[in-house]
Amino acid sequence: MEKLVFADGHMHSNPVKGLGIENIAKRFSSAGGWFIALVSLPPHHFGFDNSFDGYVKSVDVLIRECRAGKELGLKMRCFAGVHPAAVEDEISKNPKQSMKILEKALMVIDHIAKLVKNGLIDGFGEVGRPHYKSLPEAFIANTIILKHTLTLAKDLGAWIHLHLEQGGEITAFDISETVKAISIDKKLTILHHLDIATARHAQQHQLIFTVPGKIQILKEAFKSLKPMYMVESDFIDDPKRPGVSSYPWDIVDNQKKLLLDGIVDENYLYKLNVDMVSKIYDVEPP
Ligand SMILES: [Zn+2]
Ligand SMILES: [Zn+2]
């Protein structure tokens, strides 16, 4: 068991209001963590407004966090985007301004594309669709942002983390068709936070994804999925909302517990935490 190391396939850090990457990295490393895919948080998490400038500042925070985590010896890939829930939130408060809100979001994505081109971040995320009922205007805006970002990711050969509605078969079918239409490499599109039903269908379409590292979900995942996905905490590093996601070290403990219980073997865990990560993200295994 000593040789087992663990990856967090999707998480956020907040150095302003939460633990920040330095604390997270130290604790995650001592639990056996070696890799983190770090994703930007919407500006309001840091106390910035949701103007273009607020987004630029929040992406700057991500870049600094990414650098700090790497200096502590973690392997990392870093992603910035416009969260679909943030778009939903803004448009539902002000549907008449939908076009303006969309244009700002696209400007943010274009700004991120420049940072990707300059090697300051590795890709886009998260973009997509919220997992709850959406105002039609917000749904359209998120769809446009998703297509625009997928096209940029394809052109730049960059990764993209997708936040989706967990619709099972229809979600997997839609993303599979969209990926084909845009002709982006499937290795670059990572569907995050999938439930088991959506994950099963995603595997039928050879899509790459992460599942939340909660014990019940992992139990199901280990039983019913091929080891061709990754595990995530989706930690949001918000001390005011401790229960909404797992701590990165909790997903490690949960995997170790299921190993000890005989629900999963070392080989399977190695595939998720090392093989998949090094293959998908082009990083040297530890
Ligand atoms: Zn998400
Ligand atoms: Zn997330």
UniProtKB/TrEMBL annotation:
Under the heading InterPro entries, the entry gives:
Metal_Hydrolase (IPR032466), TatD-like (IPR001130), UCP004961 (IPR011589)
Q: Which Pfam families match?
A: TatD_DNase
Name the source's superkingdom: Archaea
Q: Which GO terms describe its molecular function?
A: hydrolase activity
Q: Which UniProt keywords apply?
A: Hydrolase
Q: What is this protein called?
A: TatD family hydrolase
